[in-house]
Amino acid sequence: MKVTFFDVEYANARNKSICQIGILSRDLDNPNAKTDKLELYVNPEDSFDDNCVRIHGITSDTVKHAPSFQNIWNDIEQYFTNAVIIGHNVASADLDALHKNLARYGIEIPEIYYLCTYQLAKEIVPSFAVRDYALDTLCNFFGITVTEKHNAFYDACACSDLLDKLVEYSKFDIESEIQRYIPSDNADFIAYISGASLKKDIHALYGMVKGFALDSAISEEEKDYIKSWRETFSPYTAYTDVATIIGVIDNILADDVITLEEINTLQLTIRKHFDIVSTSTVTLATQILNGIIRGILTDEEITDEECQNLRAWLYENNYLSGHFPFDKLYSAIETVLADGVLTPSEAATIKSEINNLLDPVEALRKEVMSLKGKRICLSGNFAFGQKSAVEQYIIDQGGIIETSVKKTTDILVVGDYESLSYSNGTYGTKVKKAIEYNGKGCNIQISKESDIIKPDKSFSEVLFGFIDESGLSDAEVYKKAQLPRQTMSKIKCVPNYLPSKQNICAFAIALELDVEQTNELLSSAGYVLSRSFEFDRIIEDAIIHGNYDIYSINEKMYELGISWLGAK
Fold first, then answer.
1. In whole angstroms, how large is the CA radius of gyration of the chain?
2. Residue 428 in contact with residue 395, Cβ under 8 Å?
3. Which one of 1.10.340.30, 3.40.50.10190, 3.90.226.10, 3.30.930.10 gives the CATH number of domain 363-452?
4. Fold held by 2-185
5. Which of 299, 315, 400, 419 has the alpha carbon at shortest distance from 354?
6. CA-CA distance, 152 to 93, in Å (whole number)?
């Protein structure tokens, strides 16, 4: 049986853009057969995370002259299509990275079969014999020498030695452990880069750029947005439309100055994308309008010229009448320009109206004083936990659960994980239905999850209570947690701000909290540690064993291919 021992190092956890590949190819049935060994550096054509660099030591300078992934795939494809892939936590880490890179460059994804030495070791090696099942821990247990830790080639070699030791240790049947690789979390990634979401983002960019040009000047904030868009979408240059747009952006940013003429050129380039997109006229125009009003707000100022040009665009696209938010915006613009002069107070009114249109739930949300006897419908994903847990909380408070929004619904609760803003012209279906019913005289309260589920103490109260007990300063804590100062500032200054679960756990590790205290901190933000998730198990095990070294914990996260502590 031909097998390929496979390991990668990647530049960042967001895209898992590969920067090094290690391959050791063997024929397990023929010990005398040729063994292929490959150590390949790869230019990820993407940014490097500091945490990744700290773990593997590979930087952008290391790989700046190396080929990109798409330029080496033809040379290594044979090792994946004609062999069983073997690696340590290979499915969620290395094959996940491989899958993402193939999808990114539009390369056909082959059918892959694999065997995971991490899963195998957990079945064979008793838990009392090792502190964990990391590759280096198991190599120490079996007396395997690892030439260089977190070098993709040497890790692949170590994995080969580990398989031999596991076979010797338990005499198991290798073929019975082989599984077909089925990506577990790439559906959204693939759908995004190849489907409607990418198209919507390009439509919105067109609107943003058009909004920038309405006042005939390009501010620093607007230039920064274009730079940011280029950075965000640079991984998707395998798609012709994105590559073309980024090429134009690179040209206009060459002198770090953007002229109105260059903005018009960018608009024309983006516009060409519309000719090949099967999008309804109304949907496309609504997405563009969304971009325009976001573009107007980018520099936080509303000028008379912007309002005049926005009104002209609304006139030209009056077929949107009857489609929210056209009518409200048209009415507001007509009102403030009725006398031909835009006063500061009228500019503030337009700014407020646009903010409300971009985030309608925030504008309409109401804090719920009592759930007893109220008919309540849920929408979205919830920080508190599974939807069933939220339903049970509401039932315990005397509420009545409804599965859909009706005229008689009292409250629509939107999960804090849900994207609430008017994004790319599309509301959540239930939110849109509630707004429509309210426009016809109903009184459906729209509330966020955090408006109805309230811990005894707020997250900030619990966090700063633990900080006071630790004797550390705020700065010492966020630095130990590998978090930026802005995160602490948001917790202090933004009402009801809740960091991600990763960031809260980073605070817990920095404060050296025990498991009970960590769950107290997490629950104040609607989370809890669960042994059902690998991330949570690593955190809990580290705390139980007194391991508060954030770097060693993040190293385990990296090996498992999951987000680490302090990840933004």
1. 27
2. no
3. 3.40.50.10190
4. Nucleotidyltransferase; domain 5 (3.30.420)
5. 299
6. 12
Q: What is the pTM of this model?
A: 0.50
Q: Which is nearest to 8 in space by CA: 105, 114, 89, 74? A: 89
Span 448-472, pLDDT tens digits: 877 777 666 788 999 999 999 999 9
* pLDDT tens, residue by residue, 235-291: 667 677 788 889 999 999 989 888 988 998 998 888 876 644 445 677 777 778 878
Domain range summary for the chain, segments of one domain joined by +: 2-185, 195-358, 363-452, 459-560
Token digits of residue 323:
């489609």
User: Looking at 295-369, which runs of residues are DSSP E strands?
Assistant: none
pLDDT value of residue 454: 66
For 118, the enclosing helix (H) or strand (E) is helix 117-124
Place of tokens 């209570």: 465
Q: How far is CA 199 from CA 239, 280, 418, 421, in A?
A: 11, 12, 21, 18
Burial of 446 (0-12, 13-18, 19+ CB in 10 A): buried
Q: How far from each other are the two terminal CA atoms of the chain, in whole angstroms?
A: 43
Considering the chain, what percentage of its residues have pLDDT values greater than 70? Answer: 88
Q: How far is CA 529 from the centre of its chain?
A: 20
Phi, psi (rounded to 5 degrees) for 123: -80, -30
